[in-house]
Amino acid sequence: MIIRPRRLRINETMRALVRETAISADQLIYPMFVVEGKGLKEEITAMPGQYRYSVDMLPAAVKDLEQAGVKHIILFGVPAPEAHDAYGTAAFIKDGIVQRAIHEIKSHSNIFITTDVCLCEYTDHGHCGILDPDGYVNNDKTLAVLAKTALSHVEAGADMVAPSDMMDGRVAAIRQILDENGYINTPVMSYAVKYASTYYGPFREAANSAPGKGNRKAYQMDYHNSREAEKEAALDVDEGADIIMVKPALAYLDIIAKLRPQIKLPLATYCVSGEYTMLKMAVDSGAVQPEIIYESHIAMRRAGADIIITYFAPELARFLQEAK
């Protein structure tokens, strides 16, 4: 026998020498939910170990993240029910929940803040855009509101914006309004390939964002489709996106791997709430070892993701620090 691949697996030192894929805390983004009120740290029932924070509680939470080694967060606003309306007005007001959260965090920390740009948390019908009388989400009317929302986040101090609504043309609309207002260096991370997935279930409790009627299949992608991902990603590249995202992650590794050779921009993926909860419950029950969390995120990197949005960011960052 001449060829023995096991020679390169003989011990950890050798395995580490020839390891093809690695992950760094620099590549992790942690999602945070901010709610109205004071002194609040509410555990999300459907996502054990994850919390909603009032604005005043964010600096302490961010400090804990930084101590763990996390350098990036993405903010989701959960306004008071009375702030909801048909147009998602609370998404772009100057003293909105996300805008105040950005100010509060930036007054205590230099952590990199990305904001989710969408209307589902702010509309009284729970959809990601403005509805026509027949209940159809009006794409073009929604673009102006999304653009105003993105601008308001950047004016409040956001470092990057991430539109997740899946309206056609929203990257171009956001890029245009940012450039016109002097924010030419603010990047846009587009949820370019976002499937209408059942893996989002726990998030909708966390963000109070479930649609009142119907579903989002008329604007989020059909999970039966693969080639469509290439079209969506290419369109957002052409519109000026700086980073392209695939969402969800684990059930869509084939999509990440397909896009990787085509997309020359950084490629992100989002390990979403349902994926988090399944892994968390499996580990907590003792059914699997905690290392499955690391292994699952290595799979995302191996498929081609440069950036991972994940609720496991603190655990992974600590694990990576201890492994040094």
Automatic annotation (TrEMBL):
<feature type="binding site">
    <location>
        <position position="128"/>
    </location>
    <ligand>
        <name>Zn(2+)</name>
    </ligand>
</feature>
<dbReference type="InterPro" id="IPR001731">
    <property type="entry name" value="ALAD"/>
</dbReference>
<feature type="binding site">
    <location>
        <position position="120"/>
    </location>
    <ligand>
        <name>Zn(2+)</name>
    </ligand>
</feature>
<dbReference type="Pfam" id="PF00490">
    <property type="entry name" value="ALAD"/>
</dbReference>
<comment type="function">
    <text>Catalyzes an early step in the biosynthesis of tetrapyrroles. Binds two molecules of 5-aminolevulinate per subunit, each at a distinct site, and catalyzes their condensation to form porphobilinogen.</text>
</comment>
<dbReference type="GO" id="GO:0006783">
    <property type="term" value="P:heme biosynthetic process"/>
</dbReference>
<feature type="active site" description="Schiff-base intermediate with substrate">
    <location>
        <position position="194"/>
    </location>
</feature>
<keyword id="KW-0460">Magnesium</keyword>
<feature type="binding site">
    <location>
        <position position="216"/>
    </location>
    <ligand>
        <name>5-aminolevulinate 1</name>
    </ligand>
</feature>
<keyword id="KW-0456">Lyase</keyword>
<feature type="active site" description="Schiff-base intermediate with substrate">
    <location>
        <position position="247"/>
    </location>
</feature>
<feature type="binding site">
    <location>
        <position position="273"/>
    </location>
    <ligand>
        <name>5-aminolevulinate 2</name>
    </ligand>
</feature>
<protein>
    <recommendedName>
        <fullName>Delta-aminolevulinic acid dehydratase</fullName>
        <ecNumber>4.2.1.24</ecNumber>
    </recommendedName>
</protein>
<dbReference type="InterPro" id="IPR030656">
    <property type="entry name" value="ALAD_AS"/>
</dbReference>
<keyword id="KW-0350">Heme biosynthesis</keyword>
<feature type="binding site">
    <location>
        <position position="204"/>
    </location>
    <ligand>
        <name>5-aminolevulinate 1</name>
    </ligand>
</feature>
<feature type="binding site">
    <location>
        <position position="311"/>
    </location>
    <ligand>
        <name>5-aminolevulinate 2</name>
    </ligand>
</feature>
<dbReference type="GO" id="GO:0008270">
    <property type="term" value="F:zinc ion binding"/>
</dbReference>
<comment type="pathway">
    <text>Porphyrin-containing compound metabolism; protoporphyrin-IX biosynthesis; coproporphyrinogen-III from 5-aminolevulinate: step 1/4.</text>
</comment>
<feature type="binding site">
    <location>
        <position position="232"/>
    </location>
    <ligand>
        <name>Mg(2+)</name>
    </ligand>
</feature>
<comment type="similarity">
    <text>Belongs to the ALAD family.</text>
</comment>
<dbReference type="GO" id="GO:0005829">
    <property type="term" value="C:cytosol"/>
</dbReference>
<keyword id="KW-0479">Metal-binding</keyword>
<comment type="subunit">
    <text>Homooctamer.</text>
</comment>
<keyword id="KW-0862">Zinc</keyword>
<feature type="binding site">
    <location>
        <position position="118"/>
    </location>
    <ligand>
        <name>Zn(2+)</name>
    </ligand>
</feature>
<dbReference type="InterPro" id="IPR013785">
    <property type="entry name" value="Aldolase_TIM"/>
</dbReference>
<keyword id="KW-0627">Porphyrin biosynthesis</keyword>
<dbReference type="GO" id="GO:0004655">
    <property type="term" value="F:porphobilinogen synthase activity"/>
</dbReference>
